[in-house]
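User: I'm preparing a small set of examples for a lab meeting where we compare how different chains pack in three dimensions. I only have the primary sequence for this one, and I'd like the structure in token form so I can line it up with the others. Please keep the answer compact; I'll paste it straight into my notes.
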Amino acid sequence: MVSTELVEAMLNEDETRFQNGISELLSLSRMDDVPALALLELGYFLLLRGLAAMAIPYLEQAAALSPRNRDIWTLKCLGHVRLGQRQQAIDSMAVAVDIESFPEDINLLEALQAGEASIESQAASVLFHPSLSLFDDSSEANFHNRIYRFALHQIERTDSNNVEIISELAKCYYRLNELERAEGYAKRALASKPCCSECLTLLGLIETNRKRDKDAIEYYRQAVECDGQALLARINLASAIQSEGGWSESRSLLEKALQLVQNKEEKGALNESEREWACIGLDLLASNVGVSEHDVVRELALREQALEVGCSKTPAFIANFALCLFFNAKFERFLRYTSYRHKLAFLECLEFQRE
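Assistant: Understood. Below is the structure token output for the 355-residue chain.
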């Protein structure tokens, strides 16, 4: 894979190998049936090297071939920012947000529209944002980590005092499971921006990983106090409190979180990451009402809603729903959600229940 070779070349500072990889992508770009992915990769690596003027034409060509690819438009936005072409940057990011609205993209679009001056560092974060799907098909197990490490190296050299970038560095190191470095960057960001909900949530996640539940709960509480719309913090707080038996408080937090999800859904502003958290929130709330209120009917309705929201591909959610069907005596439906190897055992239970 060309992109794998290019990352290896950059990590090892092998200029010859890097130029060979770029040459290969340039050769692909001249083919009559050039794939959009090759053009996207070429634009990406040219941007990483600071060659925005060279990258833009290839990204425009990619956009013509694949106009609904969000990655192309976000990278194109960065290229225009670096060339001082604000209106073109706004137009590109507006298309990206229309395709799929990530909070980071919306914030960048608003900053561009407001005429904010120093936005290049903010725009550069698109190069290593987890939503970038450019490398999803890599066969290298650690390829995403290599991309992160190179991007971190690049960003750390450019603007080490920018709060937004420090916050992004914290999140990236968390994804790399380097918790101490992630914690250090998150606390640095908080020193400049004490009410940074994302950093407080990240510190909560770090403490959760360390099995320090009380410290995690405190960070999640602070994050929710700073930003009432903080969905990730609210659901993590509810989960932590629920695991300690705080059913009533957890239920209140989850119901508020799901109301936030519904509001976003109605506005068409719910992204895929938030949809995943909505699944988790619904599953937690279903467990809550099933255990604390013994309301199996509402539990079933909530688990069914979770599948409708987008949990239908997650085995754990399907298993929870199947069990709920069983305990509600919905036996025929239950069997449709049960794997073949479990069917015979459950059929025996079904016959016993019918007797």
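A couple of notes for your slides: The two ends are 61 Å apart (CA to CA). Confidence is low (pLDDT under 50) at residues 135-144, 340-346.

User: Perfect, thanks.
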